[in-house]
Protein 1
Amino acid sequence: MAESDITHRLKESIRRRVWNLMEAQAAARPPRPVHGRIPNFKGAERAAEHLQELEEFKTAKIVKVNPDSPQRPVREAVLNSGKTLLVPTPRLRGGFILIDPESMRESDYCFAATIRGMFEYGSRVDLTSLPRPDMLVMGSVAVSCDGSRLGKGGGYSELEYAILSELGLVSDKTPISTTVHEIQVVDYVPMESHDLRVDIIATPEGTLRTNIVRGQAGRLIWNLVTERMISEIPVLRQLR
């Protein structure tokens, strides 16, 4: 069996184990089924609070956060802190959305942090107008203490980072964080050259710094980009 096949199977095994544990230990929250998703978890609000306490968050003016349910409290925290929120649309079909908290009432922040709300209160931003984010927050299915991270398998977090990197908007100095339940912190996650590692893990219990080196991850690997991806993701057509 090729090494990539072994790695793929091991990744899938870790995902299934985490999803099963979250259900068995009642750590998961809707939406369901939790399998196949970046899992929403009990204590997501507390994990977001720990993230807010970090100096990287306090000094950031623009924060990019994934659109999944468990990071909704992070998106709301960004707006409540008066920071600009940058959100990729699901599967990047609609590019990126920028949400300025000054463009709405404070009472609207909670709804604006949802997927429906971000389309109502945000503005789609062209690649030529994308701002430089000061901090990135990614969703995870599993993450290890050395910063190795596992998403749900679509590779969109890596693709989003690669697009921003191609545009010169992020670098290995841009802090990357994730919020997860303690169950999602595992001993080992296999990594490939294009996989991203995180600098900070926030859980309901606290934060952990991984002290990682990013390595070669970050640039678009065009031979991994299929024609179907290019047809479905307009920003890739723009870049090509």
Protein 2
Amino acid sequence: MRRLPLFPLPVVLFPGAPMPLHVFESRYRQMVAHCVEADGRFGLIYHDPDRHGPYTLEPGGVGCVAEILKFQPLPDGRSLILCRGEDRFRVDDGIESAALYYEAVAAPYGDLDDDQTGMVMRRRRSIALFHRVLEEVIKYPRPFPEIDARAEAGFQLAQTIRIDPNWQQTVLETRTERDRLDLLDDLMRAVLENGV
């Protein structure tokens, strides 16, 4: 368990993925200033106010710890930051504090134990499918983005696919790499069949 400042946004951050952010709202300017002075980490949690209404700090939400890699303050108090996703977390409880931003007690949210036998070949199949989509549907010029089949590939692939954040959140919450790859494969096969 750890105390974690929360930044609810209508985007999903995956472990290992970079994400640039423009921070302009006063409470999150305060949050980023606090994070830069501390360990440079906050929890990015998917929330779309247009779909879900105002954010309420309820237990059970799953997000991704964001590490601030670059911080560029602007003269008017706004800032540009570059983050990278680290581990996933689950909100265990909210914290009432004097801070303007949300804070939570966060628990680790890792994968369940899963047999890793044959995973390199399994990842290569998904990567090959991804390359087919890039070549046949997207007409993406080579070289294609590199996906390492020797490391977890589900999140590597998911971060390259621009699609509905609700679907991305489902991938983020999925607890085994095989299941994540199955979700991605189903999507990529649908894209190949429908050409969109």
Protein 3
Amino acid sequence: MGDLSYAPLVPNGVGGNYGTKAVPTYVMAEAETAPLPKITIEEPPPSPPPARRSLIARLGDLPMRVIYRIAVGGVATLAVVAAAVVFLVVDRGKPAPTAASALPASSPPAASSDPSDPSAPSASADFSASADPSASVDPSALASSAAPSAAASGTTAPGTSATSGASGPSAVSAQAGATPVPTPVPGRSALAAAEADPRVPAPPSVRKLADFPGRGAPTKGRVKDKRSGITFTRFTKAWKLVKSAPFGTRRVLPVVKGAGHRGMLATCPVPIAIQDELKDTAYLAARWTLNYHPDGSTITWTASQAIKAGKQKGWLLGYQVHYKVDGKKRVSTAAVALIDVPSAKPAMVFITIPDAQKKRRPDINTLISSLRVL
């Protein structure tokens, strides 16, 4: 096998050294090593709590739609509170209601003419007694008024309207007015108050109505005022049907420029205090019609006579109404007729024709002679 030579044995280092030989790795692994340092991780200190923000600052975090809704709600609440405060203040400042202020403001609807009239509206003239504009008013209070016409001053009472087609001075004519509610005079009767009115002279003596010359307007059929309980001839062409309130029926003549007034024919239950004598009631009624003439009008009597409507008794007063328009003297020819009817109040027929339309004066005679009771 060849010559094997063995090196001399050398101590393995126990109690000696290894000499120059390499040290085995298992011997190096068993050598002492320095201990590893202990690593510790410090925990961060707790963060301080967030500062408390104000309510205004936190509103900025809300969506805009929420902010808009809050703003609108606040404004609405303030408006309601303000309205309530104003209502309470105004309500406390109101005076106690009086009999005049408690009157209803509504007026009865317009009455219709005879059904055979193709140009007339088909409104009914049959009204209940409660629709009477004077039913809830003290008649003596109406008769004791000495105030100028509300219509002539350009005012319109509740429930009335201006006559259609009026313009210029005629727009403030008495056609657009309504009966004012005067303050009654304590201790004075309605008749005595009328006699003290400087616009109206003392009751006239008996005098027959003049027969006005000329040809009257054409007529066709009859008008039935069921509210007043009378009927009369229906004029055609010149006389136009208009809104009746506060009358039972009403017709007017065309507007004449510069006349300051337009002709009118109206009927209704007598709107003033009923006296013992029918002629005294007619006297108060004629004074009442000044409310449908220009402001400052005065009366002079032209007729006073008993009449009949069929078998029913009546009384007629004829008069002239004097007034001024733009400083110029004008006059209207007028008449009031009262007819005793079975209802509670006599029926009143009122017609007035200004001097600018004096050719229509014969219509007064035609109207009075045609009066009948339904």
Protein 4
Amino acid sequence: MAHPILPGCEPLSVAGSDLGVLVVHGFTGSPVSMRSLADGFVSRGYSVEMPLLPGHGTHIDDMVPTRWEDWYGAAEAAYVDLTSRCRAVAVVGLSMGGGISLALAENHGSVAALGLVNPMVLPLSQDLLDGIDLLLESGLEVFESIGGDIAMEGVTEASYDGNPLRAGRSLSDAMETVSANLGAITCPVLVCTSVQDHVVPPASADLILSDVSGSVRQVLLERSYHVATLDYDRELLEAEIFAHVDAVLGGAA
């Protein structure tokens, strides 16, 4: 049976104008990491959907059986819902949420703009995959956590304290397809990249910058780690993403 949603990890659904924004959190994380961004879009008048991806924000046991298809499917359903009531929709994502955002833009030409924060787009290295397979063969299903990579002391993202290995392998496998199809993305893209990121390598941002077909711009975050939405550069990051979406969609006010 699924566990209850942890305080602060609740999804968000707000009906605003006929311009929409889908906000997507990361792997083993929760809407906590994206709440400020989502609330900012609400205050700007947008219709906003921020789903709690399957298996997240409750207990790690709920995430162990979930896979890429579950997380992407939930985000896609929220996107389709937004498009049914909005004339234009942007997608904003962190880490895996960035990978989901890219996949949505590859599969839905209607995505108007992307705002990406340390997005994952490259699969794991073969050495890491081999290590995961060895751990799984040994009977281990959950390994040490990849969450909480934040430079600012005392800040947490309400992520799990473990990494479900089969779920992580599913994510890596999906990135094979996402990384190969970046050329299908034609909408304007903003990539916010932390100079120090201990989770996603800078090569992911480099690939996006080189392979997407639409206009792309990068903002470097000098003081933040992976979860930059909760870190020292949060205000800069938010200002850049709000300006990007406003410029492309025309503003919701």
